[in-house]
């Protein structure tokens, strides 16, 4: 495992730690094997433990209530690129999996698909636009 050199009262000792299990170590000292017991104090942490009082909650406090949203779905750019073709127009009815537009990214044409059924509310990009990842391309209702 590890090799150590000790000098005790002018005598040099080459010590090889062969094995260490719990508090028993097997040492090779100048070619002679010894089995020794290690006495070690447990280290105590200097960091104090933080003790907190239990939280007293008021009725209704700490609960998240979900508010009804507008229901709009935003179609985001999956990666940076340029808009190659827009295949839908505002007011079109869309089904899940329909191709909404084609964008060129990393020298490849990528289809951007609808994740849900709905109607195209607005188109935020046009052909030739450069977009970044997660830019909003189309809003659907």
What is the CATH architecture descriptor of the largest domain?
Answer: Beta Barrel
CATH homologous superfamily heading of the largest domain: RNA polymerase II/Efflux pump adaptor protein, barrel-sandwich hybrid domain
Cα shape: elongated
CATH classification, class level of the largest domain: Mainly Beta
Could you outline the blueprint of secondary structure elements for this entry?
Blueprint (H helix, E strand, L loop, with lengths): L1 E7 L2 E11 L2 E6 L2 E6 L35 E4 L4 E6 L6 E2 L4 E7 L2 E6 L4 E6 L6 E2 L4 E5 L1
Antiparallel strand pairs: 1-2, 2-3, 3-4, 5-12, 6-8, 6-11, 7-10, 8-9, 10-12
Report what the structure shows.
The protein is elongated and about 95 Å long. A four-stranded antiparallel sheet has the order 1-2-3-4, with no helix packed on it. A four-stranded antiparallel sheet has the order 5-12-10-7, with no helix packed on it. Strands 9-8-6-11 form a four-stranded antiparallel sheet, with no helix packed on it. It folds into two domains: 36 residues, no CATH class; 68 residues, OB fold (Dihydrolipoamide Acetyltransferase, E2P) (Beta Barrel). The chain has 141 residues and is an all-beta fold. It is built from no helices and twelve strands.
Question: Which labels suit this protein?
Answer:
141 residues; OB fold (Dihydrolipoamide Acetyltransferase, E2P); 4-stranded antiparallel β-sheet; 48% strand
Could you provide a short overview of the structure?
The chain is mainly β. It is built from no helices and 12 strands. It folds into 2 domains: 2-37, no CATH class; 73-140, Beta Barrel (OB fold (Dihydrolipoamide Acetyltransferase, E2P)), CATH 2.40.50.100.
